[in-house]
Amino acid sequence: MKTVPTSRARRGRVVLTAAAAALALTLSACGSDSAASGDEAETRTVTDALGTEVKVPKEPKRVATLHYAATQPVLDLGITPVGQGSFEEGIIPEDLVETVADVPVVTNDATEPQLEKITGVDPDLILAPNVLEEEVLKQLEAIAPVYVFTLRGGDRANWAQRTEEIADALNATERVDELASDFAKRQEEIATTYADVIEGRTVGVIGAYEENNFYAWGEKNMSGTLLEPLGFTWSAREDAVVSKEKEPEATVSFEKIGSTVGDADILFLDSNLREEVNPFMEALQGTKLYQQLPAVKADQAYVMGKNTVAGYTDAHYSLDRVEDALQDLQAK
């Protein structure tokens, strides 16, 4: 069982060390030649999440992803990256473990880009999250074109949009349209099949990424995009807790679990893609306050997969777990 690092819930902008900056200067000095040769190749211009126009290869062949939130969409689009950001073992779908096993990790555990490693995989396109400082982006641009995708900010909940952004950079928009259509159809099928179970049910969604605190997710966050189309009603208490946050999510003390999701008939818990919760969630589950929640006392607390949706593969995994829960509720 893997511990989810506290950096997962951390906000902030990533900067490089002085040593990395020095390396970037060296790369910049020799980058002009590679840039010139790249201009000779067929390219297209796209607009990234920062509103910056980026000239990218028409058909990128060697894509480096600097965060798992890009790695999963790239894999969903049928492309294996040549370099990838760090990740926890359990968040990789079991059938993709071998696919990424030999792909070099080009960030450190804090998801900071490692310039030398990135250079070593010889990318023709770099997918970078929108949490990097401008100076870092310039250093990366000395290696290859950089497309910035949405990780944090007002559009954080729209994981499907992030996949669309990456598909645009990869010139794979037809494929992403297929993924979106298939996912919407599946949600419609679940909503229809289990309408009698879902109707009138209130759900709450929580995670835990640090000691003595849990994470509350509002209906306008990623889990909401999965559950609301099925017909569930969101916990009014949980929505109230996150209502003043810039993003509809909040870190909350264990002591406030009842006042946050005590109105939920069903509770969905963050887990990896092996139906395993982390030690922080285990600690919460061991408290009397958690055990006294109506959903828990009714044996209606279920693992759901990752609260932070990276792409269609883990979104489908979450729907798998939701269907398991609905089948259990239907049998009661």
Automatic annotation (TrEMBL):
Residues 62-332 form the Fe/B12 periplasmic-binding domain. The keyword Iron does not apply. Gene3D superfamilies: Nitrogenase molybdenum iron protein domain. GO terms for biological process: iron coordination entity transport. It holds the Pfam family Peripla_BP_2. GO terms for cellular component: outer membrane-bounded periplasmic space. Keywords: Signal, Transport. Its main location: other. This is Iron complex transport system substrate-binding protein. The lineage of its organism: Bacteria, Bacillati, Actinomycetota, Actinomycetes, Propionibacteriales.
